[in-house]
Design goal:
The protein is α+β, with helices and mostly antiparallel strands. The chain has helices at 16-19, 29-38, 86-100, 116-124, and strands at 3-6, 43-47, 53-62, 69-77, 106-112, 128-134, 152-158, 176-178.
């Protein structure tokens, strides 16, 4: 049985099997270390009984007032460990910390609009599209549906502090903003 544990700095030397995936955003070492230093309680990794890293999640707390929330910066599972609910478990741990420790109103994440498998997974976990962010991942040109292939959905899930569910909306796919409009 694998274990979900805090992400440690030396894990950066062991997670290539996870990061070598077309959907996984990779960052410089300083980026990862900043997260581990500032939001260590929102960064986890899943490790197999043999010590192989299976997946990880990096998160942070940000915003002000009713926009105070947990943010999933990266969640990725190595291809050989997918469909085992590892991403779901890591997200639930981050949601719990965002709710109980940080007292956030919601958890959000950004996902490529053409990553349909991830979108379905997040929707199954209770996330909904809050807005579409044009050219969030850059600009690679217009895709088959006439929209930029590098757009992202900003997906959100309410936490207990947002009992009125003001941080979500039903028409999020129709709300289009520029990447310059999001922080």
């Amino acid at each position: 049985m694998s274990v979900l544990r805090p992400f440690k700095a030396n894990d950066l030397f062991r997670f290539n099997n996870i990061n070598l995936d077309v959907w996984t955003e990779t960052y410089g070492i300083t980026f990862y270390l900043t997260y581990l230093q500032r939001w260590s309680d929102l960064c986890f990794t899943q490790e197999s009984p043999r010590g192989r890293l299976q997946g990880y999640i990096l998160g942070k707390a940000e915003g002000v007032q009713t926009e105070w929330h947990g943010h999933i910066t990266a969640v990725s599972v190595a291809p050989e460990y997918r469909r085992l609910s590892l991403a779901r478990n890591m997200c639930q741990r981050l949601e719990f910390a965002s709710d109980e420790i940080y007292k956030g109103y919601f958890v959000d994440l950004y996902v490529r609009c053409n990553n349909t498998l991830a979108i379905k997974m997040y929707e199954g976990m209770g996330y909904s599209v809050y807005r579409r962010v044009r050219e969030y991942y850059g600009n690679l040109g217009v895709g088959k549906d006439g929209r930029d292939e590098e757009d992202a959905f900003d997906m959100r899930k309410c936490l207990s502090r947002d009992a009125a569910q003001r941080s979500i909306r039903s028409n999020g796919r129709d709300m289009i903003v520029s990447a310059h409009d999001v922080s």
